[in-house]
Amino acid sequence: MTTSRFNLWPYAIIATFVLFASYIGYMVQQAMSTSVDLVSADYYQQELAYQKRIESVARTAALPAPVEVDYEQAAQRLTLKLPPSLAGQAVQGTVHFFRPSDQKLDFNLPFAPTGEPAQQQLNTSKLQPGYWRLRIDFTAGSQQYYVEQELSI
Question: Helix, strand or coil for residue 83?
């Protein structure tokens, strides 16, 4: 008489393949449901203008004094000060508040410092607490300047 033994190996191999396929299916579902926002909607157009940005950053770094960004948490105020070497020049530009974690919070404000020294104060009471990147892009005289500063509110 021969006795047939029950062999578990075929079932274990099938179970392993089923578990692996389930795991891969779960990972694909997670990857498809994750929101992947670009840094900006017109990322590729901005990339083409990158050389001008490099020149603006170099020009800003060559200033005798830096552009100062002072945040006063108690007063909920952000002060942007231009160096004295840019005094007396017509300055126009934009201040872009960039929130890396949520692009819906990004916004732009006009940058037109006044007074002596040239400065602009911004109210930060409506900003969401957290990490922000402040991008100041401005023209003084006929020269383009660019400053990027991290800010924690």
Answer: coil
Whole-number Å distance between alpha carbons of 131 and 39? 15
Element holding 12 (H helix, E strand): helix 9-33
Q: How far apart are CA 137 and CA 128, in angstroms?
A: 22
**Token pair belonging to 102:** 């949520």
Q: For tokens 């590729």, what's the residue?
A: 44
Distance (Å, whole) CA 64 – CA 109: 26
Which of 85, 69, 84 minimizes the C-alpha distance to 153? 69
Mean pLDDT of the chain: 88
pTM passes above 0.85 = no
pLDDT in tens, 73-94: 888 899 999 988 888 888 899 9
Domain boundaries, the chain: 43-152
CB atoms closer than 10 angstroms to residue 86: 20
Q: Does domain 43-152 have CATH number 4.10.240.10?
A: no
**Helix extents (H) in the chain:** 9-33, 43-48, 50-61
Taking only the tens place, the pLDDT of each residue in 97-136 is 998 888 888 899 999 888 887 888 888 888 889 999 999 9
